[in-house]
Design brief:
- By secondary structure, this protein is of the alpha/beta class.
- The protein folds into 2 domains: about 140 residues, Rossmann fold (3-Layer(aba) Sandwich), CATH 3.40.50.2300; about 150 residues, Response regulator (Rossmann fold), CATH 3.40.50.2300.
- Helices cover about 45% and strands about 20% of the residues.
- α2 crosses α11.
- The protein is elongated, with a radius of gyration of 24 Å.
- The N terminus and C terminus are likely disordered.
Length: about 325
């Protein structure tokens, strides 16, 4: 009798297990066979980096990794503080996430350092100079379990556009954060090519967002125009720069569409949603086991986009609409691609 009872219990347990396994199999099939947790660390809160994040999630989605279905996303913003960026990265490591997506150079460097003795891959985006940030070797290859996309600016194209818009300009001002490696390397690029377009670069370095107001007030007295980088600290205070420049009636050129939407006159720059999307597709390959971050060289956007804000030009009485005559309309911004 006892044997029969035991046997009955075993049969029941096996049946329950089989049903449970069947449900789990169906669940796994619906989720693509795996679940992932990604920590997204973003250095600052502004349009271009937000577009990167949204594009990243869209790139994953197109590869079958969807937030709320088979993907859990942890999101934190460092608010332009490098110490906070390090804390965020350390927290993701302690939670043993499957991957860290680092948006902007300080977060990427923090994530790389935090994961160095782990098997957690880091995928970065919006990094102007991965080599200068020591995230890649000179030939573009990864220096560890880290890869991603670069938003290196098309400096020559930007200078050519500024020369076309302002044929008599001599001095181009740039405000940048001295602690942002991406900005330092981009300043070097501007200086390298400025003479080819008969420009002098006038630079002002800042340390915090609180320095932008004084730097902008001084800058507009020295230059014919300002060109803005993808410097996260300066972009966070872009309106301050625009206010001083508009009052002085000098144009500010941006480096991507969100800056032009905010009031810069024009830009030849990066489509950050597309950049983020490209990064998401790279991340999907790593999560699915199709590639290793350590074997993937960083990638770049091959073709820059051009943007023109006619209202911003009119505000400073800059009549250059004829130079963008072929532009298409994008909300209140005229966009040529």
């Amino acid at each position: 009798m006892k044997k029969r009872i035991v046997a009955g219990i075993l049969v029941a347990m096996m049946a329950i297990a089989a049903v449970g396994c069947g449900k789990e199999t169906a669940k796994d099939a619906a989720k693509g066979g795996a679940e992932y947790t990604i920590g997204i660390a973003q250095f600052a809160e502004h349009g271009s980096l937000d577009n990167c994040r949204e594009g990243f999630l869209e790139g994953l989605k197109e590869e079958g990794i969807v937030e709320g279905e088979n993907l859990e996303v942890l999101y934190d913003n460092a608010q332009t503080d490098t110490g906070t960026a390090s804390t965020i990265a350390d927290n993701y490591v302690s939670k043993k996430v499957d991957m860290i997506c680092a948006i902007a150079t300080p977060c990427a460097m923090s994530a790389y350092n935090a994961t160095m003795n782990t098997d957690i891959p880091v995928v970065y985006t919006a990094i102007s100079d991965p080599v200068g940030a020591q995230l890649a070797s000179k030939d573009g290859k990864s220096v560890g379990n880290v890869t991603g996309t670069s938003d290196a600016l098309p400096v020559k194209e930007q200078l050519a556009m500024i020369r076309n818009v302002l044929p008599d300009a001599k001095k181009v001002g740039i405000i940048y954060t001295t602690s942002e490696a991406n900005s330092v390397s981009t300043i070097a690029e501007y200086k390298k090519y400025a003479k080819d377009y008969d420009f002098e670069i006038v630079e002002t370095g800042i340390n915090t967002v609180g320095d932008v107001d004084m730097a902008a007030a001084d800058m507009v007295t020295k230059v014919d125009c300002i060109t803005n980088l993808t410097d996260n600290t300066v972009v966070s205070a872009l309106q301050t720069v625009l206010d001083h420049a508009n009052e002085a009636k000098i144009p500010v050129f941006g480096s991507e569409v969100e800056q032009v939407k905010a009031g810069c006159v024009a830009a030849v720059g990066i489509d950050y949603f597309a950049l983020g999307k490209q990064t998401g597709k790279m991340a999907a390959k790593i999560l699915k086991g199709e590639a290793k971050a350590s074997d993937m060289p960083f990638e770049v956007i091959s073709e820059p986009s051009s943007y023109f804000n006619s209202e911003a030009a009119a505000k400073i009485s800059l009549d250059v609409a004829d130079k963008f005559a072929d532009a298409e309309t994008y909300d209140k911004i005229e966009v040529s691609k």
